[in-house]
Design brief:
The complex is a heterotrimer of chains A (413), B (413) and C (276).
Chain A lengths: L1 H15 L1 H41 L2 E4 L3 H4 L9 H9 L4 E15 L4 E9 L24 E5 H7 L6 E7 L5 E12 L4 H6 E5 H7 L8 E6 L5 H9 L8 E4 H4 L1 H39 L1 H9 L4 H35 L3 E2 H5 L6 E4 L2 E4 L1 E2 L5 H18 L1 H8 L3 H6 L1
Parallel strand pairs in A: 3-7, 4-6
Antiparallel strand pairs in A: 1-8, 1-9, 2-3, 2-5, 2-8, 4-7, 5-6, 10-13, 11-12
Helix pairs in contact in A: 1-12, 2-10, 2-12, 2-14, 10-14, 12-14, 12-15
Chain B lengths: L1 H15 L1 H38 L5 E5 L2 H4 L9 H10 L3 E16 L2 E10 L1 H7 L6 E4 L9 E5 H7 L6 E7 L5 E12 L4 H4 L3 E4 H8 L6 E6 L5 H11 L4 E5 H4 L1 H38 L2 H9 L4 H36 L2 E2 L1 H4 L3 E3 L2 E3 L2 E2 L7 H25 L3 H5 L5
Helix pairs in contact in B: 1-13, 2-11, 2-13, 2-15, 11-15, 13-15
Chain C lengths: L12 H15 L8 E2 L15 H11 L5 E10 L4 E11 L3 E8 L7 E5 L2 E6 L4 E4 L2 H6 L17 H4 E10 L2 E9 L7 E8 L6 E8 L4 E13 L2 E11 L6 E10 L11 H6 L2
Classes of the chains: A alpha+beta (413), B alpha+beta (413), C alpha+beta (276).
Chain lengths: 413, 413, 276
């Protein structure tokens, strides 16, 4: 009897003074919303950073012939690459597997030669969102002795589409590899080396030029779920076609990025903590204020026979109801916001007050301010618990205070 | 007369309900403090990034030959390097001006070779301007006027299998194609903590580069200022005093990728500061609204006693303003210790980031400092006043519409 | 936050292979005409007289000296994983003109290289193009090769840079051992060179190069002395780098003619394209 009627009284108390309740509810909801929004944004930023730092060049997993990474000898190749790729693609966690060929070479338009880097890629595979030719609709423009050149490279040597370019290098036998290619287009990629030195051609063309049929220097794999990466690496390494090959996770290829990612995680918690403090302050302030403003009301209740213990219980239940509702609303709003923006992304530059949607074009490298907010169940849970607890803790002092009230004084205040 | 009456009344009201006032002030204070601390930290982090870039040898400004920005040709030289250097060094606000000249070169020892970009420096200026020149792990840095000496990065020393006091064989190809040869004695080895960075370091005196390349004068002058805030200003002034044919570039133009990163990070941080400020303001507002809503009776009494609606509004606003100012002060007091500590001692992230991470040739300090300054006062006032005033508006307007009799009825609790 | 990695200089052995050949051809101008000599009479084996170092070195120098040389050579580059053999014809005049054409293997046949002064061009028959090698890549091409960039023709000379002395008898290979020490101010890779001359032919059979720390860096063997082009000279040069497993470079003269009258016009781009 006591519990249901306490509940009812609490509920009616809240309903009776709607504005006050709504304000408290609002404070709690905003707190939760801010918490979730911050988490989502930081997650998005972290992902974007990782993606652009690893990106098309590094990927999540890299496969090479042992020793190739030391001095990039052209003759250290992965053999039977087509069959190997087919095998790798069967793995459920593999999103994309891209073969690559790398060879330094001399390039020339007319008589004067200059340094370049031949990059052989599979145009279709590289057109995927995280590939080298992502979003460029260029897959039809390489192959059949047509090549793309990096924008920095093109600018430096005045290369334009339609020109014929000679490429001279060394093939796997040590002979002089040389051939003529047509420049079909200039591309800007986020990969500096391709941009500044790169001549991008199809795998077939590269393999012909360098006398390495069905071979490649590198396979770059992008996985579906990065959380399961180490399992995927283990599985891929144990594939028979890759016995004797070197299979590495991205952390081993670019260890300094690991440091930065760790740092970003810490940073995220610091920011989150600060946002939490800000929200908690607001919630506590509101709850406290509202409780103290009701001293007169409490005085009335006490003098009408409601025991102090019971009164504090009512107050506590009110706080619980407000807390739960507020958190629920905040979560709903937060998830809604994330759902709305996770596909299209957010341009934080515009929100952050600098010029809207900036894109820096530095020799073709594009650095955008676009992030895709992301949120996990654990993030939501953290917010719920933190914010809910705050609203509860905020009423402890008033509860204590209420218990010690002198009814007559209270009525008169 | 009316105004002073309102003010007197406002002050007395605040004095009368001490708890409410105290709670309000503390609430506003904590909110402000949080906003202030976050802002301070963000500003500090931004400045440090700029400083990190400057300290890695890129400076705040660079005087470069016309056309260098686009072509990035090492062989270009300034119109009158010596005179320009003198001019710059005589300027106020200039901390260090360091001339440089660069050349591609080959270092060899026995059968080992390593390609490097030779950097010709003015040793005392270089040590003042670049952390690289101060990161000696063995030996010493260059002395002015010393010919045939070099300081190399530890990675290069490893590749060539050489140590201090070994003589390296240098080959430089001049513009006309002639080869220039020289011996360089290793007087110092640099270890910045970043292997990538160490693989590119090879410093010799400016005079040596002049001799090797046959090109006289400096290729550019890198300048650091006393404060990063004067960059644009100094740049504009410099443009008027240096000869035609030379450009003045800011660090963002010299390293556009870094400039873009910096802008992008700044925007991101602004967004978070914005979120926190909004949360703080909402929290304060809701608490204030809660307080004021409870005072409808009070306003009704006042109006029944003859106070006009507009006077009530003024009263409420003056109270809010007073609370705002007091709250801002409290916020400043609360935030100061923490901001001061982080501004002087800083937060040490080396546990996560390691001693030195470098990205794109920029060394980042693992210790982060926040920025302390007079800007904190207007910021605190802004957050506090806007919140309290907004909170006061609604009830003030509402209060005017009350029908005194119904407001006074007992049923309002 | 954006990252770019500094790239290692480009290895370009294709051009390097050809340049190595040029270097080898011109490497013969190594020990020059005059040597500042400090004669030293160290104890010699009883039945082998003390050699006249100056004369030995002069002979070495004059071994390949010629106003104009044509040759047919075979170069074998041995690496742990594979071995590659090239056969080519070369023409050289003075110190700054050289032309060579690859005859074998078939895949590379017809590829030609022309060096005039500091300029280097390659002609590639498959694409019918002549390309000029940029100076920056000329330096880089010596990486990974067994010949160092020090071996390229330059104005300075070993004779001015070293002092020589006879230091005794060598047993493997047998012969007189002469030591050349780099003078204190010299610009070069080698701290000293030790050359062994055979007793019979008085020809060099081995040169050992020591780097600036006094470590043996590489060994060059001169073997298979034959009567060729009217001279008696070693026809097989082998360069073996120290501390590199399974690597060496062999240069074999199949045919040589010295003091041939060669026209300057032969060393031109038009000739380059016509030489097949």
């Amino acid at each position: 009897m006591t519990s249901t009627s306490t509940l009812r009284i609490a509920w009616r108390n809240l309903g009776r003074n709607r504005k006050r309740s709504l304000l408290a509810l609002g404070a709690i909801a905003v707190g939760q919303l801010a918490f979730l929004a911050t988490t989502a944004l930081m997650n998005g930023y972290g992902e974007q950073y990782l993606n652009s730092a690893t990106g098309p060049m590094v990927g999540h997993i890299q496969i090479h012939a042992p020793g190739w990474r030391d001095d990039r000898s052209i003759d250290l190749t992965l053999g039977d690459i087509d069959a190997t790729l087919t095998e790798i693609r069967r793995d459920p966690q593999v999103d994309y597997a891209s073969p690559r060929v790398f060879a330094p070479a001399l390039a020339a338009l007319a008589e004067d030669g200059f340094m370049s880097m031949v990059v052989g890629v599979d145009p279709e595979v590289e057109s995927h969102p995280r590939g080298l030719l992502a979003g460029e609709h260029l897959s039809g423009q390489i192959g059949g002795h047509r090549v793309l050149v990096g924008s920095g490279f093109a600018r430096k040597h005045d290369i334009e589409p339609g020109m014929e370019i000679a490429v001279i290098g060394q093939d796997v036998d040590g002979s002089i590899a040389n051939d003529l290619f047509t420049v079909s287009n200039v591309i800007a990629t986020p990969v500096a080396i391709v941009n500044n030195l790169g001549i991008v051609m199809s795998m077939d063309d590269a393999q012909d030029l360098l006398l390495m049929p069905d071979q490649g220097h590198e396979i770059v794999i992008h996985v579906k779920d990065r959380e399961l990466l180490s399992n995927t690496v283990t599985r891929v390494s144990s594939l028979p076609c890759l016995s004797g090959a070197e299979v590495l996770a991205w952390q081993e290829i670019v260890p300094y990025i690991v440091t930065i990612v760790n740092f970003l995680d810490v940073y995220k918690f610091i920011i989150l903590f600060i946002v939490f403090i800000a929200a908690a302050a607001g919630i506590a302030n509101t709850m406290l204020m509202s409780t103290f403003e009701r001293t007169h009301e409490f005085g009335m209740l006490l003098s009408l026979g409601c025991g102090p213990g019971r009164l504090s219980k009512i107050i506590a239940v009110e706080a619980v109801i407000l807390g739960l509702l507020g958190v629920a609303i905040g979560t709903a709003l937060g998830l809604g916001l994330v759902a709305l923006t996770s596909e299209s992304g957010i341009d934080y530059a515009a929100l952050g007050g600098s010029e809207s949607a900036f894109e820096v074009d530095f020799q073709g490298l594009q650095i955008t301010s676009h992030v895709f907010p992301k949120i996990n169940a654990s993030d939501v849970a953290l917010g719920v618990i933190a914010v809910f607890l705050t609203s509860l803790i905020a009423v402890i002092w008033p509860m204590v205070h209420v218990v010690r009230l002198e009814p007559m004084e209270a009525i008169r205040s | 007369m009316k105004i002073s009456l309102t003010t007197k009344f406002a002050v007395r009201t605040l004095g009368r309900s001490k708890r409410r006032t105290l709670l309000s002030v503390i609430g506003v204070g904590i909110g402000c403090a949080v906003a202030l601390f976050l802002s301070a930290f963000m500003r500090g982090a931004n400045e440090m990034r700029v400083q990190g870039i400057a300290d890695s040898g890129f400076g705040h400004l660079r005087i470069a030959p016309g056309g260098w920005e686009k072509s990035r040709e090492n062989a270009l030289r300034l119109q009158d390097g010596r005179a320009e250097l003198e001019t710059v060094r005589a300027m106020e606000g200039v901390k260090v001006a360091a001339p440089h000249a660069r050349s591609t070169a080959l270092l060899a020892f026995g059968t080992r070779v390593a390609g490097v970009e030779l950097l010709g420096v003015d040793p005392p200026a270089e040590q003042a301007i670049s952390r690289v020149a101060r990161a000696m792990s063995e030996g010493r840095y260059l002395n002015p006027g010393h010919k045939g000496m070099t300081v190399i990065g530890s990675t290069i020393a490893e590749r060539l299998e050489v140590e201090l006091d070994d003589d390296l064989f240098l080959t430089v190809v001049r513009e006309g194609g002639e080869m220039e040869y020289a011996m360089l004695r290793i007087v110092g080895i640099v270890n910045t903590g970043s292997r990538d960075l160490d693989a590119t370091i090879c410093h010799v005196t400016l005079e040596d580069v002049q001799q090797f390349t046959g090109l006289n004068g400096a290729g550019e002058i890198t300048i650091t200022l006393d404060t990063a805030r004067k960059v644009e200003q100094t740049a504009s002034y410099l443009r008027t005093v240096i000869p035609e044919g030379d450009d003045v570039l800011t660090w963002k133009e010299v390293r556009p990728a870094q400039g873009a990163d910096s802008k992008s990070d700044q925007a991101f941080m602004n967004l978070f500061v914005g979120i926190v400020v909004v949360v703080v303001m909402l929290g304060i507002t809701s608490a204030q609204l809660t307080a004021i809503l409870e005072r409808r009776r009070e306003f009704a009494v006042l109006m029944a006693l003859g106070m006009k609606g507009i006077q009530v509004i003024r009263l409420v606003l003056v109270e809010a303003a007073a609370l705002g100012i007091l709250g801002a002060t409290a916020g400043l007091l609360l935030a100061m210790p923490l901001v001061y500590y982080t501004a002087t001692t800083g937060i040490n992230f080396s546990a996560i980031i390691g001693e030195g991470t470098s990205m794109s040739g920029v060394l980042f300090d693992p210790v982060m400092y926040s920025d302390m300054g007079l800007w904190m006062i207007p910021r605190a006032l802004f957050v506090a006043l806007i919140s309290t005033l907004i909170a006061a508006l609604y009830p003030a307007w509402y209060a005017v519409k009350i029908d005194p009799t119904s407001a006074l009825s007992l049923r309002e609790a | 936050m954006n990252l770019t990695r500094r790239k290692q200089p480009v290895t370009q052995p294709a051009v390097g292979a050809i340049q190595r050949v040029i270097a080898a051809l011109l490497l013969c101008a190594l020990p020059g005409a005059t040597f500042a000599q400090t004669s030293s009479e160290t104890s010699a084996a009883a039945n082998k007289p003390t050699p006249n170092v100056a004369r030995l070195l002069k002979r070495f120098d004059e071994m390949y000296e010629s106003s104009g040389t044509t040759a047919q050579v075979q170069i074998t580059i041995v690496k742990p994983k594979k071995t590659r053999t090239l056969r080519m014809r070369m023409w050289g005049k003075g110190e700054d003109k050289a032309l060579m054409v690859i005859d074998a293997p078939t895949r590379d046949a017809g590829t030609a290289t022309l060096k005039v002064g500091n300029n280097l061009w390659n002609y590639l028959p498959k694409i019918s193009r002549t390309i000029r090698v940029p100076p920056s890549m000329m330096m880089g091409s010596w990486m990974g090769s067994d010949l160092t960039n020090d071996d390229i023709v330059r104005e300075s000379s070993y004779e001015e840079d070293y002092t020589s002395e006879f230091v005794g008898h060598s047993t493997d290979p047998t012969g007189w051992k002469v030591r050349l020490d780099a003078r204190p101010d010299v610009v070069g890779l080698w701290d000293r060179v030790e050359i062994v001359f055979s007793y019979d032919d008085k020809l060099p059979v081995q040169s050992q190069f020591f780097d600036r720390k006094g470590r043996l860096s590489r060994t060059m063997r001169l073997e298979e002395v034959k009567e060729i082009g009217g001279r008696r000279i070693p026809t097989l040069l082998t360069i073996i780098p120290e501390r590199e497993e399974g690597r060496r470079t062999e240069l074999r003269y199949l045919h040589v003619e010295f003091d041939v009258k060669l026209d300057d016009s032969m060393f031109s781009l038009s000739q380059l394209e016509r030489r097949r």
